[in-house]
Every structure is written in C-alpha cells, then in structure tokens.
Design goal:
Radius of gyration: 21 Å
Oligomer: single chain
Distance between the termini: 31 Å
C-alpha cells in the first residue's frame, strides 16, 4: 500500500477533484491510516497540487507531474473551448492581459483567495461576470501560470505555479504518452484502450501510441473480444466487505465502461440526470450497491445510507468508523 498522499496520487497519475472534501477522502482511504489534516498538509507542503490537467476538470496530481501532464493533455481542451470563449467575449488579448494582472497580484509568493484574485482582475478592468471568472482561471491554469494553493478555511486559494513548484519532471512526446498509459493501466487495470481514451481525453491515435510504448511493461488479456491491460504483477484478489467511496471516485469514474461494478439500471441513482455529478457510493464486495450522504456536527458525523435494495448494513460499520477517524469525529451509520 502507498505510504504517503503523494504516493497515492502519483500511482493513479491523476485523481478527480471537483469536490474538494471528496478528493481528500479518495486519497485518505487508500492509505493504511490517514487524516484529512494530513492530506491537506500534503497540499500545503507542495507534494500534491490541484489543477485542470485533463478533460477540463479538476484533478489532484503529484507536484512533480503537473507540468508535463498539462503540456500533454490541455491543448485539445483549449482548442475545443474557443467557441465558448467567443460567446463570453473572452479574446486572446483579454487572456494575455489577465495573465499579466495575475502574475502581478500573485508575484512574490502571495497566496490569494479566489474572491480577492477576481477582485484584482475587476479592479484592472477585466470583467469576471457571467462565467468569465471560471474560464479565465481555468485557461491560466492550463497555460501553467497558476494553480490552486492550500485551502484557507473553506476558501479556495491560488498561487503562481512557477513560484509554488519551481522545479518538476520534464516529459514530452512519446515518453509522456507512455508514462501516462503506464500510470493509468497499473492503477486502473484491468481496463481497455477505450477506458484510457475516456479518462485521459487524448485522441485515440495518441492513446494507441502511449499504450504501444508502455505495453511491454504491462500484461494483457482478451475477454469477449476486448483487450484488457493491467500491471504485470496484478494478482487476482477478492474485494470483500463494505466501503464508503467518495463522490467522483476513480473506482467508478475512471472508466468509459462501468458495467463491471455498477448495474446499468442503477447508474441514474449514482449520476442523477446524467449531469456529470457523481454521488458518494456504497460498495459491497466490489459492487456499487447504493449511495450515501453525510451530515456533520462539531463532534460527530452521521452517514445516511441510500441502498438500491434491501441490504445488510453491518459490513459498513468498519468503513464508517474509519471515515470518522479520518475526519477526527465520532461516526454514526444510519440506515
């Protein structure tokens, strides 16, 4: 098992992080023992970093990987966003001006809350209304200007990437594609090329090239005409017991085909309205069997189970206790 938050994130390549609290738990549950505060310390300690490296969505990545991943995967996303930017009247000139303003506001190691950064842009004549704020910050992150800093209370903060992480690994071309493929299939395997294309957002041709380059370091098996790739040392294991997986967890979200762990008829219960918002999941013996939600007080967290069908809840007692320990709270499971 991984020993540090950075080990977990690096092994996955990237971990979905739209929902910050869920992303912290996604990392913590993959460590033998961890607290939410320890994961946040890894963020503050510049070991892991949150940005938009792939598919235009937020992920945690190891600090050493952020630059090469941004360079590899964001050009397609930027190109696909231009029509939306035209609708928002966000020209290249505005992005250039925004970059200069942000570099001045954050320069010298400053850490600014999102609201303060946007106020600084507004004060210099750059409108952030009507969705423009998100797209300005998103574009500057993908251009490797800024990234998220440590959370300040409940507030999101931003920092200059070059000051926050002055040095990191350099990879490009086939080497970067191969490294990404290797990370994906060793952490998500058995998985197909189609799964990798979905997860990474790469063109099919690039995904093929990465898999071809990394394939000698992976094992594969054909089942029902589909080729599944995985780590060479992957041993069959029985997944038993109950687990409280967070929203957007890679266990489900990391695949184009999720049928192995979630029955199609239950998919709308995990992703209501197919709107891209994944709810926290109850997993029993490897299968998604329901969702859950939490309510927290100062001293206690209560987990409310929402199973798809009648279900013995005893296997989730240990998972509930562990989640409470992660948060530093007493925990109660409610059927």
């Amino acid at each position: 098992m991984a020993r540090t938050p950075a080990d977990v994130v690096a092994s996955f390549g990237a971990m979905q992080a739209q929902d910050y609290a869920s992303a912290l738990w996604a990392i913590g549950l993959r460590l033998s023992s961890a607290s939410e505060a320890e994961i946040e310390q890894a963020v503050a300690g510049r070991e892991i970093v949150r940005s938009w490296p792939m598919r235009g969505t937020l992920h945690f990545v190891a600090a050493d990987d952020l630059r090469w991943m941004l360079a590899l995967m964001t050009p397609r996303v930027i190109a696909a966003s231009r029509r939306r930017w035209e609708e928002l009247e966000l020209s290249d000139a505005i992005f250039v001006k925004s970059r200069k303003v942000v570099e001045k506001l954050l320069g010298g190691g400053k850490i600014l809350a999102r609201e303060d950064l946007l106020a600084g842009l507004e004060g210099r004549g750059i409108s952030t209304a009507g969705g423009r704020a998100y797209h300005i910050l998103w574009r500057l992150a993908q251009e490797r200007v800024l990234c998220f800093g440590p959370r300040d209370g409940k507030q999101k903060t931003f920092v200059l990437l070059d000051e926050w992480i002055p040095r990191s690994r350099e990879l490009s071309g086939e080497a970067a594609l191969a490294e990404l493929a290797l990370r994906y299939f060793t952490s998500h395997g058995p998985a197909t090329q189609a799964d990798f294309v979905w997860w990474s957002g790469l063109k099919v041709s690039d995904a093929k090239a990465g898999l071809a380059e990394a394939g000698t370091r992976l094992a594969n098996e054909t089942v029902d005409g589909k080729v599944y790739w995985m780590a060479r040392d992957l041993a069959p294991v029985g997944v038993s017991g109950g687990f409280l997986l967070p929203a957007f967890d890679e266990y489900l979200l990391g695949y184009a085909d999720r049928g192995a762990v979630l029955e199609a008829k239950h998919s709308p219960k995990v992703v209501p309205g197919s709107n891209g918002v994944f709810l926290p999941m109850l997993v029993r013996d490897g299968l998604v069997v329901g969702t859950w939600k939490r309510s927290s007080g100062r001293k206690e967290v209560t987990i409310q189970a929402i199973p798809f069908a009648r279900l013995a809840m005893a296997p989730f007692a240990k998972a509930t206790k562990r989640y409470g320990s992660f948060l530093g709270l007493a925990a109660k499971f409610k059927e």
